[in-house]
Design goal:
The chain is α/β, with parallel strands linked by helices. Helices cover 37% and strands 21% of the residues. It is built from twelve helices and eleven strands. Strands 3, 4, 5, 6, 7, 8, 9, 10 and 11 form a nine-stranded mixed beta sheet that branches. Helix 1 packs across helix 2, helix 1 packs across helix 3 and helix 1 packs across helix 4. The radius of gyration is 24 Å and the shape is elongated. The C terminus is likely disordered.
Amino acid sequence: MLMPKSLDWNDLRYFLAVARAGRLTEASRRLATDHATVSRRIKALETALDANLFIRSPRGYQLNAAGERLLARAEEMESAAVRMQSEIGGENVALGGTVRIGSPDGFGAFFLAPRIGGLAARHPGLELQIVAMPRPFSLSKREADIAISLARPTEGRLVSRKLTDYRLHLYGSRDYLDAHPEITTPGDVADHAVIGYIPDLIYAPELDYLPQVAPQIKPRLTSSNLIAQLNAAKAGAGLCVLPAFMAAGDDSLRPVLPEQIAIVRAFWLILHADQRDTVRVRTVADFIARCVEQDRRLFLPQVEAAAHRPKSSSPL
């Protein structure tokens, strides 16, 4: 009877690096070794397990079904090792590996990016990736380790927590509002240039704001990117629904009818069930939640008093 080759536990480090990087060259860089060594260790692991773990192609290394199963187990072992070091050796255990955060463009670029440097400084071995794009992210397909979503997931092996509600208002630049007729009711907005999302590229129903302002509004300038909409509004191209945390502190923008046009949405933090106890992922998720809690007033400010007033009013 043939005995299976014993598994070298150290090979799992190489497996995790390739699974996360997707390429031998990038994995070897992260491990500070050469790609031939990484390739040899992956082959040794596959021989020991008597299973292929990757689909190899010119684009790199993609996990197959067996690799996905091993990834979950290897990350459990990685987390257990880090916890063991922390419990026995103290709290200053260095975290390593990559954590990819998929996020809506506004939250990722305006809120998270200016704050996450503190976490990177505390854990130099942690590689943090912010994918700030207007699209959903599949955690089951490993498109991200953490997803920030506008809705709570209702299916799949996912765990979630609500980060916060956030408020949106209609904004216009000072120059635009001073040059156009006064807006006294939400219905008046339909007579103005409005900036919004491209209708057939709205990836979540929570982003379909304009019907809530007035059903007859048809935007004249559209973009799939919220930051592009913000910059167009600041340049005077028209009125735009924006999260209050993005417009806060920007003197070039003024809210329009803030007491009447106030839309509330929510941000949810989502993890795959297999990664909820992975130390590097949990550390980043907890950091994001703390940042939101500390700055909750940005997301739910008091109704601004700086609404557009008749042109005879003195400028603010």
